[in-house]
Design goal:
With about 400 residues, the chain is an alpha/beta fold. The chain contains 15 helices and twelve strands. It has two domains: about 250 residues, 3-Layer(aba) Sandwich (Aspartate Aminotransferase, domain 2); about 130 residues, Aspartate Aminotransferase, domain 1.
């Protein structure tokens, strides 16, 4: 059979059917499994087969369906599903690093990711060097013979700065370091991160994969050896695995992922174009717009602008709050990748713990708004934004 296309894999990939032949994937809502004999139990603990399970913390048929479908989507050999996106970030990094290792990380990260890199890893003896992700010279200067990994968001939260995956991967290969990429903003629909040189790709499945505000989840993707020999032992013993019900919800989300993300991206491009040059905005940030300084890299790396926009309102926090409070269609929240459009004020929410100096360095001003574009009609969203800007 010919290789199946993405939308087909998102509907059928990894499906397991019981003897009842159910159409929709089954929820195996069980924490344990029964063995036909003591000898069979012993054998499974020694070496579980391809479709054999021991305990839900180790694996589950519904969770395995999600893992296999996510791996097909990303073009990875294997995947391990986690309880949240941050469990995936923490699990991937903690599983591969030990005391005395060195990691180089971009400093433009989601607040919780930065907390792991700046606070958690050093507690366990991991040395961390932070760089500006878009500056390849800083990556070259930071890596060392003992660098174990490099870590970055392929598109940063919230200022939508891109890191050149292929270029950083080449630098990392020079010292034998693994390339770990948080790919949430680029989305799995547009991602080609593994082909571009990433060894490990991480998603918060809470975002576009669910896309409907229902559940938390995460997934780590990579080689079968890395997933089963490095990630699985760490996560199955520390308890960061995904629940079967969550996996089932995410399987339903994956069925419409491609359709949703492409529609959201189309709307995001229309909104960014409508906002460009607005008198009340000092800047509009959208990788799909020619005004973005990394527009060419965005087209080369993901082929589209994505579902996220950022813009800076003149007048700082007070003006930003007046704008947010005047919105009628777009909701104020801190999630993203949802069917509902969401506006966020990063300086006081997702990135509030950062120092004023760090915020300034990353471009997270008091007037910055992060907009996650949903599935509403784009013209209604544009009208809502323009009305809120006028109300200021």
């Amino acid at each position: 059979m010919t290789t199946r296309k993405t939308r087909t894999n998102l509907v059928h990939g990894g499906t397991r059917r019981s003897q009842y032949g159910e159409l929709s994937e089954a929820i195996y809502l069980t924490q344990g499994f029964v063995y036909p004999s003591a000898e069979a139990a012993e054998q499974r603990f020694l070496q579980a087969g391809e479709d054999e399970f021991i305990y839900a913390r180790y694996g589950n048929p519904t969770v395995r369906m999600f893992e296999e479908r996510a791996a097909l989507l990303e073009g990875a050999e294997d995947a391990f599903a986690t309880a949240s996106g941050m469990a995936a970030v923490n699990g991937a990094l903690m599983a591969m690093l030990k005391a005395g290792d060195h990691i180089v990380s971009a400093r433009a990260l989601f607040g919780s990711c930065l907390y792991i890199v700046e606070e958690i890893l050093p507690r366990f003896g991991v040395e961390v060097t932070l760089v500006d992700g878009a500056d390849l010279e800083q990556w070259r200067a930071a890596v060392r013979p003992d660098t174990r990994a490099v870590f970055f968001e392929s598109m940063s939260n919230p200022t939508l700065e891109l890191v050149d995956i292929a270029a950083v991967a080449e630098i990392a290969r020079g010292v034998g370091a693994s390339v770990v990429v948080d790919n949430v903003f680029s989305t799995p629909v547009y991602s080609d991160a593994i082909a571009q040189g990433a060894d490990v790709v991480i998603y918060s499945a809470t975002k576009h994969m669910d896309g409907q505000g229902r559940t938390l989840g995460g997934v780590i993707l990579g080689t079968r050896e890395f997933i089963r020999k490095t990630v699985e032992p760490y996560l199955k013993h520390t308890g960061g695995s995904m629940s079967p019900f969550t996996a089932w919800v995410l399987l339903k989300g994956l069925e419409t992922l491609d359709l949703r993300v492409r529609a959201q991206t189309e709307s995001a491009a229309r909104i960014a174009a409508a906002l460009e040059g607005h008198a009340r905005l000092s800047r509009v940030i959208y990788p799909g717009a020619e005004s973005h300084p990394q527009h060419a890299l965005a087209l080369r790396q993901i082929g589209a602008g994505g579902t996220m926009i950022a813009f800076e309102i003149d007048g700082g926090k007070e003006a930003a709050f007046r704008f947010l409070n005047a919105l009628e269609v777009i909701l104020i929240s801190n999630n993203l990748g949802d069917a509902k459009s969401i506006a966020t004020h990063p300086a006081t929410t997702t990135h509030q713990r950062l120092s004023d100096e760090m915020k300034a360095h990353l471009g997270i001003s008091e007037g910055l708004i992060r907009l996650s574009v949903g599935l509403e009609d784009a013209s209604d969203l544009i009208s809502d934004i323009e009305a809120a800007l006028s109300a200021m």
